TrEMBL record:
Entry keyword set: Amino-acid biosynthesis, Aromatic amino acid biosynthesis, Lyase, Pyridoxal phosphate, Tryptophan biosynthesis
Associated pathway: Amino-acid biosynthesis; L-tryptophan biosynthesis; L-tryptophan from chorismate: step 5/5
Record InterPro entries: Trp_synth_b_CS, Trp_synth_beta, Trp_synth_beta/beta-like, TrpB-like_PALP, TrpB-like_PALP_sf
Subunit structure: Tetramer of two alpha and two beta chains.
Family: Belongs to the TrpB family.
Listed name of the protein: Tryptophan synthase beta chain
GO molecular-function terms, A-Z: tryptophan synthase activity
Keyword Amino-acid biosynthesis listed: yes
Catalytic activity: (1S,2R)-1-C-(indol-3-yl)glycerol 3-phosphate + L-serine = D-glyceraldehyde 3-phosphate + L-tryptophan + H2O
Amino acid sequence: MSHTGSSQNVQENTDFTRYPDERGHFGIYGGRYVAETLMPALLELNEAYRTHVRNPGFQKELYGMLKDFAGRPTALYFAERLTRKTGGGAIYLKREDLVHTGAHKINNTLGQALLARHMGKTKVIAETGAGQHGVATATAAAFFGMECKIFMGTEDIRRQAPNVNRMELLGAEVVPVESGTGTLKDAMNEAMRYWVSAVRDTFYVIGSVAGPHPYPAMVRDFQKVIGEETRDQAVNEIGRLPDHLVACVGGGSNAMGLFYPFINDPAIAMTGAEAAGTGIESGKHAATLGAGSLGVLHGSKSYLLQDQYGQISEAHSISAGLDYPGVGPEHSMFKDLGRVNYVSITDDQAMAAFYELCRTEGIIPALESAHALAAAIDIAANAPPDRVIVVNLSGRGDKDLGIVAEYASGSEDG
């Protein structure tokens, strides 16, 4: 596990919940860097977000769906055998793999689809990498009776075929994107291009805390239910708040969902695990915060992977959900302020953690979550027994079994 060099210079009394500002900035990050044709749609969305999402009636309707349709609250599970084998601190798992559709993505898609209905939109579009966001969007669209298009890179269609089948069964049209490397970045490019032409009746459901304002804040707000539940469950089941929170970071929505309700508790440490692929030095990685630089991608300013000419570099991870050259702007601010420590986990380290959880706890994690597990195992091994570490198990690993088989046979090119 390599550390990305957080500055650890958190200013005392900083209120992290006051971000973003009115223009959608998290310090120097975030904002709206889009074509003029998209500005009316984003302003309409921002107004609807401010009007509806913060309304108690909207929240009551949303939390009712999260409970009765999505299956919340998810369990906070003590991984006793993994803890015993690791030694050191106690490892708890926030079981987002148990929610409907098998990943945290459903929290956000139900929220955005509900907002789309309040705005009078009849169609939704989305992009997806690992397929979990695509399945969750197709599910929400079916729930509300909306038309649905999912943009997906051809490489990710190959890697995540079971999720493509699920989206089609749910009535969504999966649109293959052949440009670039055929991964999440290219799918998001194509989805934004399509949205420009269909904005009147179509709502774009972005899957992470990325994109132009208000998406990073809005997705965070729909995902913070993860951390809110964790606070209550830790107090009720352990008798106090946890000491350390760990989550994987691609775009960063599951991490932000766990972290945000604790962000103003300075005694609680937080670690985000990025994908180091075959190693930072190899150049085949997706460690945006560890090896990226300041730039603009998909409508917001943040750290991203780019060459000396500002061209977006190809990202790599064994996990399709982390295979993205950008990151949410709020994570970039937290890195600079030292509020969250970001580390890089290689494909091999993630796979070792994947097998460890399967064999010690009988739980098959998503490969995204395996990156967080690898970081948590390292943290726990170096912590005293009374230290409580909560890992966000963001999704289940059924979708990744083909990749695991390739890795096991040695055919995965890394």
